[in-house]
Design a protein that fits this description.
This protein is mainly alpha-helical and about 270 residues long. It has one domain (about 5-260). Helices cover about 75% and strands about 0% of the residues. It has helices spanning about 5-15, 20-50, 55-85, 90, 100-130, 140-165, 170-175, 175-185, 195-200, 205-215, 225-255. It starts with a helix and ends in a 12-residue tail after the last helix.
């Protein structure tokens, strides 16, 4: 893999933000607004919750983390779609650029813009609603990493879907994080789920994150075993997503579907 080509992919995408208000605004505006709405909601819940139960802080923290995962996934997908919309995707692969280098560039871009979004959400949550991320302790860092890996995997899978089924398939990829939400237990413990959903949740990496954070927020022991399982699943997602994209790319080249992404294509 050539680091220079990876950085070129990332810098090309980041340069698109320069002087483009319509691209810069979504980096932080909608996530910050979401945090504000949930912040006021959790403030109200804090007035009706039982003493000693930090319901508001737990919910607000969950909103921040789930928004982070969504931003990471969208960061990969939107970066890929920029090349699709500009009919530049095929041009990139007429150069020595390889698939791993291209995906690494998408990942680097997503991490960069997601960090901006996370910073904006934390600023609103801390400054206006008194959220203290440090209260959860060291488990916050591995939790963020698990969510980062899961978001990247979802983004790469979404790119493979668009590559396989065409640009019109982009409407199928945006709801992907929502499909995980009921099983991940973002706002409620796994115990409230029916048995079959609990079984599915055991294969969902974010479920271990939110279950562990709830336990830590209530003064429980650090969920080391659960986080280890979640991390293993998240890394597995990355491997599967990468393999799926590579196979889809080879299929698109072999069958000629890749031609739909050329500058001359009208599809």
């Amino acid at each position: 893999m050539n680091l220079q080509r990876i950085l070129a992919i990332a810098l090309r995408q980041l340069f698109l933000f320069r002087g483009s208000f319509t691209r810069v605004l979504p980096l932080f505006a909608w996530s910050s607004l979401d945090i504000a709405v949930w912040g006021f909601t959790t403030q109200y819940l804090g007035t009706v919750a039982m003493p000693g139960v930090h319901l508001g802080a737990t919910l607000l923290g969950a909103v921040v983390l789930w928004n982070f995962l969504t931003r990471v996934m969208h960061g990969v997908t939107t970066t890929f779609l920029e090349d699709v919309w500009s009919r530049n995707f095929l041009n990139l692969f007429s150069t020595p650029l390889t698939v791993p280098e291209y995906l690494a560039g998408l990942v680097l871009t997503s991490i960069s813009i997601s960090a901006v979004g996370l910073g904006a959400m934390l600023t609103v949550a801390v400054q206006f609603f008194g959220l203290l991320p440090a209260q959860a302790g060291w488990v916050t860092l591995p939790c963020l990493f698990i969510l980062l890996c899961t978001g990247l995997a979802l983004g790469i899978v979404a790119c493979a879907m668009v590559l396989r089924f065409g640009p019109s398939a982009e409407w199928l990829v945006w709801p992907l994080p929502m499909l995980l939400t009921p099983f991940a237990g973002v706002f409620y413990p796994q115990s409230v789920l029916p048995p079959w959903m609990q079984t599915v949740a055991r294969g969902i990496a974010p479920a271990y994150v939110f279950e562990g954070l709830r336990g830590a927020a209530q003064g429980g022991a650090a969920p080391v075993q659960g986080l280890a399982v979640g991390l293993s699943l998240a890394l597995g997602y990355i491997a599967v997503a990468y393999g799926l994209f590579v196979l889809t790319y080879k299929y698109a080249v072999r069958t000629g579907l890749i031609a739909r992404y050329s500058a001359e294509s009208v599809v």
